[in-house]
Write a structure and sequence with these properties.
Layout lengths: L25 H12 L8 E5 L5 H8 L4 E6 L2 H14 L5 E5 L2 H4 L8 E6 L14 H10 L2 E12 L7 E2 L2 E9 L2 E8 L3
Parallel strand pairs: 1-2, 1-4, 2-3, 4-5
Antiparallel strand pairs: 5-8, 6-7, 7-8
Protein backbone atom coordinates (compact mmCIF):
# COMPACT_ATOMS: atom_id res chain seq x y z
CA UNK A 1 0.00 0.00 0.00
CA UNK A 2 1.33 3.40 -0.97
CA UNK A 3 0.44 7.02 -1.66
CA UNK A 4 -0.50 7.17 -5.34
CA UNK A 5 -0.12 10.82 -6.34
CA UNK A 6 0.78 14.29 -5.16
CA UNK A 7 3.69 15.52 -3.08
CA UNK A 8 4.30 12.13 -1.42
CA UNK A 9 3.73 10.01 -4.54
CA UNK A 10 5.14 6.50 -4.18
CA UNK A 11 5.63 6.60 -0.39
CA UNK A 12 4.95 3.17 1.09
CA UNK A 13 2.59 3.06 4.07
CA UNK A 14 3.24 0.84 7.03
CA UNK A 15 0.51 -1.65 7.97
CA UNK A 16 0.02 -3.52 11.23
CA UNK A 17 0.25 -7.28 11.17
CA UNK A 18 -3.44 -7.93 11.74
CA UNK A 19 -6.48 -9.20 9.87
CA UNK A 20 -8.65 -6.39 11.29
CA UNK A 21 -7.69 -3.88 8.60
CA UNK A 22 -8.83 -4.15 4.97
CA UNK A 23 -6.86 -1.51 3.11
CA UNK A 24 -8.10 -0.14 -0.17
CA UNK A 25 -5.95 -1.33 -3.04
CA UNK A 26 -3.88 1.24 -4.93
CA UNK A 27 -5.73 0.88 -8.24
CA UNK A 28 -9.09 1.47 -6.58
CA UNK A 29 -7.78 4.41 -4.56
CA UNK A 30 -6.48 6.02 -7.76
CA UNK A 31 -9.89 5.53 -9.41
CA UNK A 32 -11.71 6.98 -6.40
CA UNK A 33 -9.56 10.11 -6.32
CA UNK A 34 -10.05 10.55 -10.08
CA UNK A 35 -13.79 10.65 -9.40
CA UNK A 36 -13.32 13.12 -6.51
CA UNK A 37 -11.36 15.50 -8.77
CA UNK A 38 -14.59 16.05 -10.73
CA UNK A 39 -15.96 17.65 -7.56
CA UNK A 40 -12.82 19.76 -6.92
CA UNK A 41 -11.74 17.51 -4.06
CA UNK A 42 -9.50 17.29 -2.02
CA UNK A 43 -7.19 20.22 -2.89
CA UNK A 44 -7.39 22.94 -0.23
CA UNK A 45 -10.20 21.17 1.64
CA UNK A 46 -10.84 20.14 5.24
CA UNK A 47 -11.13 16.34 5.38
CA UNK A 48 -12.02 13.63 7.90
CA UNK A 49 -10.98 9.99 7.47
CA UNK A 50 -13.31 7.90 9.67
CA UNK A 51 -12.42 4.28 10.49
CA UNK A 52 -9.10 5.33 8.97
CA UNK A 53 -6.91 2.37 9.79
CA UNK A 54 -3.35 3.31 8.82
CA UNK A 55 -4.58 6.47 7.07
CA UNK A 56 -4.43 5.49 3.41
CA UNK A 57 -7.30 7.74 2.25
CA UNK A 58 -6.48 10.70 4.50
CA UNK A 59 -2.77 10.63 3.64
CA UNK A 60 -3.63 10.42 -0.06
CA UNK A 61 -5.84 13.49 0.41
CA UNK A 62 -3.00 15.38 2.13
CA UNK A 63 -0.55 14.41 -0.60
CA UNK A 64 -3.04 15.78 -3.13
CA UNK A 65 -3.33 19.14 -1.37
CA UNK A 66 -5.92 18.79 1.41
CA UNK A 67 -5.50 21.54 3.98
CA UNK A 68 -6.19 19.41 7.09
CA UNK A 69 -7.19 15.81 7.78
CA UNK A 70 -8.73 14.52 11.01
CA UNK A 71 -8.14 10.78 11.36
CA UNK A 72 -10.51 8.74 13.57
CA UNK A 73 -9.62 5.16 14.55
CA UNK A 74 -10.60 3.13 17.62
CA UNK A 75 -7.81 0.52 17.68
CA UNK A 76 -4.80 1.86 19.64
CA UNK A 77 -2.39 -0.53 17.92
CA UNK A 78 -3.47 0.68 14.49
CA UNK A 79 -3.31 4.31 15.68
CA UNK A 80 0.37 3.78 16.54
CA UNK A 81 1.03 2.72 12.93
CA UNK A 82 -1.12 5.61 11.64
CA UNK A 83 0.92 8.13 13.63
CA UNK A 84 4.15 6.65 12.25
CA UNK A 85 2.79 6.99 8.69
CA UNK A 86 1.78 10.62 9.32
CA UNK A 87 5.22 11.44 10.71
CA UNK A 88 6.99 9.59 7.88
CA UNK A 89 4.97 11.61 5.33
CA UNK A 90 5.76 14.89 7.11
CA UNK A 91 2.09 15.77 7.68
CA UNK A 92 2.14 16.31 11.46
CA UNK A 93 0.92 19.93 11.25
CA UNK A 94 -1.86 19.08 8.79
CA UNK A 95 -3.16 16.10 10.79
CA UNK A 96 -5.23 15.42 13.89
CA UNK A 97 -5.54 11.89 15.23
CA UNK A 98 -8.53 10.94 17.38
CA UNK A 99 -8.64 7.58 19.18
CA UNK A 100 -12.39 6.89 19.23
CA UNK A 101 -15.24 4.94 17.69
CA UNK A 102 -16.32 6.98 14.66
CA UNK A 103 -19.86 5.60 14.91
CA UNK A 104 -20.14 7.38 18.27
CA UNK A 105 -18.40 10.69 17.54
CA UNK A 106 -18.59 11.06 13.76
CA UNK A 107 -16.20 13.64 12.39
CA UNK A 108 -15.13 15.53 15.54
CA UNK A 109 -16.19 19.14 15.89
CA UNK A 110 -13.62 21.27 14.11
CA UNK A 111 -12.95 25.01 13.82
CA UNK A 112 -14.01 24.81 10.18
CA UNK A 113 -16.67 22.44 8.81
CA UNK A 114 -15.50 19.47 6.78
CA UNK A 115 -15.62 19.55 2.99
CA UNK A 116 -14.98 15.84 2.55
CA UNK A 117 -15.48 12.86 4.87
CA UNK A 118 -14.39 9.30 4.13
CA UNK A 119 -16.56 6.69 5.88
CA UNK A 120 -14.86 3.30 5.62
CA UNK A 121 -16.09 1.05 8.46
CA UNK A 122 -15.70 -2.73 8.52
CA UNK A 123 -18.10 -4.25 6.00
CA UNK A 124 -20.04 -6.05 8.76
CA UNK A 125 -20.97 -2.64 10.19
CA UNK A 126 -22.63 -1.55 6.95
CA UNK A 127 -24.85 -4.59 6.38
CA UNK A 128 -27.72 -2.64 8.00
CA UNK A 129 -28.24 0.76 6.37
CA UNK A 130 -31.81 1.81 7.13
CA UNK A 131 -33.19 4.15 9.80
CA UNK A 132 -31.69 3.43 13.21
CA UNK A 133 -28.66 1.63 11.76
CA UNK A 134 -25.16 2.66 12.86
CA UNK A 135 -24.53 4.14 9.39
CA UNK A 136 -27.78 6.11 9.43
CA UNK A 137 -26.98 7.46 12.90
CA UNK A 138 -23.48 8.41 11.76
CA UNK A 139 -24.87 10.31 8.78
CA UNK A 140 -27.14 12.23 11.17
CA UNK A 141 -24.09 13.23 13.27
CA UNK A 142 -22.24 14.36 10.13
CA UNK A 143 -25.06 16.70 9.08
CA UNK A 144 -23.90 19.50 11.38
CA UNK A 145 -20.20 18.87 10.82
CA UNK A 146 -20.03 19.35 7.05
CA UNK A 147 -19.90 22.54 5.04
CA UNK A 148 -22.78 23.37 2.69
CA UNK A 149 -22.44 20.98 -0.26
CA UNK A 150 -19.95 18.89 1.76
CA UNK A 151 -19.25 15.43 0.41
CA UNK A 152 -19.29 12.02 2.15
CA UNK A 153 -17.71 8.95 0.56
CA UNK A 154 -19.03 5.66 1.98
CA UNK A 155 -17.28 2.36 1.22
CA UNK A 156 -19.32 -0.87 1.48
CA UNK A 157 -19.57 -4.32 -0.05
CA UNK A 158 -20.79 -4.14 -3.65
CA UNK A 159 -24.13 -5.77 -2.80
CA UNK A 160 -25.06 -2.92 -0.39
CA UNK A 161 -27.00 -0.10 -2.04
CA UNK A 162 -27.35 2.98 0.15
CA UNK A 163 -30.65 4.88 0.04
CA UNK A 164 -30.83 7.86 -2.31
CA UNK A 165 -31.19 10.14 0.73
CA UNK A 166 -29.81 10.17 4.29
CA UNK A 167 -31.30 13.23 5.95
CA UNK A 168 -29.66 16.19 4.21
CA UNK A 169 -27.32 13.97 2.16
CA UNK A 170 -28.25 12.71 -1.30
CA UNK A 171 -26.41 10.30 -3.58
CA UNK A 172 -24.57 11.99 -6.44
CA UNK A 173 -22.57 9.02 -7.68
CA UNK A 174 -22.05 5.28 -7.17
CA UNK A 175 -19.07 3.21 -8.26
CA UNK A 176 -18.09 -0.45 -7.95
CA UNK A 177 -14.64 -1.98 -8.05
CA UNK A 178 -14.25 -5.69 -7.47
CA UNK A 179 -16.06 -6.68 -4.27
CA UNK A 180 -16.50 -3.12 -3.01
CA UNK A 181 -18.79 -0.21 -3.73
CA UNK A 182 -18.35 3.48 -3.10
CA UNK A 183 -21.30 5.81 -2.72
CA UNK A 184 -20.68 9.55 -2.89
CA UNK A 185 -23.23 11.72 -1.14
CA UNK A 186 -23.48 15.49 -1.02
CA UNK A 187 -25.09 17.68 1.60
CA UNK A 188 -28.03 19.77 0.43
CA UNK A 189 -28.97 23.05 2.08
CA UNK A 190 -32.34 22.78 3.80
Amino acid sequence: MRIIAGTKRGMKLLSPKTDVSRPIIDRVKESLFSVLYKYDLPDGKIVADLFCGVGSLGLEALSRGAKLVTFVEKDPNIVATLETNIEKAGFLKESKVILADAFKIGAPVNEQPYDLVFVDPPYADTSEIGDGSPLSDLMAILTNRLAPHGTVVVRTRKNIQLPEQYGQFHVIERRQWGTMAVTILQKTNK
